Structure formats: structure tokens, C-alpha cells
Amino acid sequence: MKARFMKTALVTALTLCAATSYAKQEVTVYTAFETDILAKYKNAFEQENPDIAIKWVRDSTGIMTAKLLAEKNNPRAEVVWGLAGSSMALLKSEGILKSYTPQGLGELNNALNDPQASQAWFGNDAYFNAICFNDIVAKQLNLPKPTSWDDLTKPIYKGHIAMPNPASSGTGYMQVSAWLQNMGEDSAWKYMQKLDTNIAHYTHSGSKPCVQAGMGEVAIGISMASRGAKLKTQGAPLSLITPKGIGWESEAVGLVKDSDAAKRVVDWSISKNANELYIEMYPVVAHKEVVSEMKNFPNVKQVMAKMDFARMGDERADVLNKWSDKFDSKSEPKS
Predict the structure, then answer these.
(1) How many angstroms separate the CA atoms of 261 and 282, rounded?
(2) Cα 135 from chain centroid (whole Å)
(3) Is there a domain that residue 294 lies in?
(4) Are residues 204 and 73 in the same domain?
(5) Number of domains in the chain
(6) Predicted confidence band at 60 (pLDDT cuts at 50, 70, 90)?
(7) Which residues have a Cβ under 8 Å from the Cβ of 275 and sit 6 or more positions away?
(8) Is the pTM of this model over 0.90?
(9) Who's near 75: CB < 8 A, 6+ residues apart?
(10) For the residues of 94-107, what is the DSSP string, one character each?
(11) Are 40 and 109 found together in one domain?
């Protein structure tokens, strides 16, 4: 009887130990990464960290930034991963992101990281805008290929252009900010007023205008260059046009809650293995040893706008309020 009791107790103890050892700690990660890559990043992280499970909360950059600001006094996120550098700068200034030095920081290109002291966010990749131009639709409609931003204001393009709403899309905001920073504020707002005359609609996704152009729903989409390159490689009849002053930004990671599991997510997100996944989607990544060329990606080095990410963060609310007052009536309904 005693032996049977001891055997039962031992089996119970071993079962509890096994359950404990395989119980995963869940980390809530807020992100604006495109939906179709989230499972890949989650699976790769969890394969190397089997005791931690990522719980994604995903939305576009503008909506995710607003959510984090609204939850400032009761944060629900533990990590922010894949959010625009300008948003990260704003979150840091609001005290939402914690200063942290992740393992492997010295292996990154520092140009994509928080430039201020007590760094709180770190680049994953850099992404760029482009004009996605459907050659077949343009031929049917006798639309000439634009070569400059000013070309897009010509009457011939009226109703043929889609662009992301900057209040809900980081891709949209970085182009609006590029115009403001490089044209000058008065000239940029006048330009956007003229451009709005030709806009068919504003989307709530940064990649959607290029997808719509690729499908022929519009002739022109101001959108993510990487999405355009991917669609072109898949056979979409697109030309990717990059006028001087093209908007760009980094996507970055930062710590919200100071836990060991959250820190491990941040550490892995800047690792070489993570960067080898980023480069499948983005042509420029943070890790110094990870370099590749994306097929059909345009040469953007000579046309990149000068971008001040801290300024983008500081001006964000005022710029978006002004933009929304002027142009939001053409935005697609939010799903």
C-alpha cells in the first residue's frame, strides 16, 4: 500500500513538473507589420524560445500608435515590434517605451536606431514608398507615365490615384511628412490640395494602393515599394516610379514592460536570424551582416527624402488633424 502511494505521488509530481516545464509564458506584442508575415516571425521566435508564446495585436501604424497612447496609464502591450520610428520616438517621449540595451545591439546599423541618449527603440528594417503604375490600365486610358510628384497633379490623372490615409497608415504619414520636410510646409499643403483633386480614395493600409494598382482597380497607387516589387515579381503589370523626395522610415522594436520574457522578444527581434526573415520582405535591414537584393526593387538611394524622425513624432498630432480636416472625406470606410 505504501509503495503504491509513493508510486502515485511520484507520477503526479512528474506530471506537474512536465506541465510546468512546457507551460508557455505569453507576451503581448503590438505591431504594424503586414498580416501575412506575422505567423512566420512568431514561429521562428517560438522555435528558438519554446517557453514563450507571442500574442500579436496588429493594426495599421496610426491606429496602433493611438492605441498605445490611449493605454499609456494602463499599458496592455509588453513589446512594440514593427512600428514606425517616428511613432516609437513619440512613444518614448510619452514615457511608454523603457530604455533598454538589447543583446546584440553592436551588430546593428545605428542609423536605424533611436538617436537619443538612453536608447529605447531599435531598427528592424527600413521601408520606402514608390508610385505603383499599372502599365496596362494606363495604356487603356491613355495615361502617360508620371516622373515627378508634380505630374500627379495634372488633370489627366483625376480619379486614377489611391494613397494611404496618413492618420491610419505609417506609409501614408511618412510620405506626407517627406513632402512637408522637403517642400516646405506652405508648398507641401498646397501640393496636397492639388493632389487631392486627383485622388480616387485614401486607404487605411499602406500596401493596399499598390495592390489595387496591381489588380487594375486604380491606375496609380502611392504605396510601399517592397509590396510593389513583390507584386511585379509575381507578374503584376506594374512599373515602380520613385520621384525625388520619396518617403522612407524605419520599423523598430521597443520594450514596454520590464520582464525577462519581453526582453527576450526584443533581443531576438534584432538578431541575425530575425533580420534574415526581414530581408525577405524589406530591401534594407538593420543587421550589418544581412544584405540582399530584392528583385524589381527600385534604386532609391539618390531619391530618398531627408527625414527627421523626431520631428515626425513631435508634429504627428497637428499634421494629422490638419490633414484629416482637409482630406478625410475621401477615405475608404474602416473595416
Answers:
(1) 27
(2) 27
(3) no
(4) no
(5) 2
(6) confident
(7) 124, 125, 285, 286, 287, 290
(8) no
(9) 68, 96, 256, 257
(10) TT-SBP---TTGGG
(11) yes
Give the CATH number for residue 206.
3.40.190.10
Same domain, residue pair 77 and 153: no
Q: Is residue 278 part of a domain?
A: yes
Residue range 118-135, pLDDT digits in tens? 999 999 998 899 999 999
Report d(CA 40, CA 31) in Å as an integer.
14
Q: Is residue 291 assigned to a domain?
A: no
Which residues are bridge partners to 203 per DSSP? 164
C-alpha cell, 69: 497612447
First to last CA, the chain: 65
Q: Please determine, for residue 23, whether its predicted confidence score (pLDDT) is greater than 80.
A: no
**pLDDT higher at 335 or 98:** 98
Q: DSSP secondary-structure letter at 42? A: H
Contact between 78 and 52 under an 8 Å Cβ cutoff? The reply is no
If we measure between CA atoms, which residue out of 166, 246, 163, 148 comes closest to residue 201?
163
Q: For the chain, what's the residue count?
A: 335
CA–CA separation, 22 and 324 (whole Å): 49
Classify each residue of 296-312 as buried b or exposed e, where b means 16 or more C-beta atoms within 10 Å of its C-beta. bbbebeebbbebebbeb
The rounded Cα 298 to chain-centroid distance in angstroms is 19
Clarify whether residues 275 and 324 are in a common domain.
no
Reported as a pLDDT band with limits 50, 70 and 90, residue 14 is low
- Domain of 103, in residue numbers: 2-126+249-285
pLDDT band at 19 (very low <50, low <70, confident <90, very high): very low
> Using CA atoms, how far apart are residues 296 and 302, in angstroms rounded to an integer?
17
The answer to whether residues 199 and 307 belong to one domain is yes
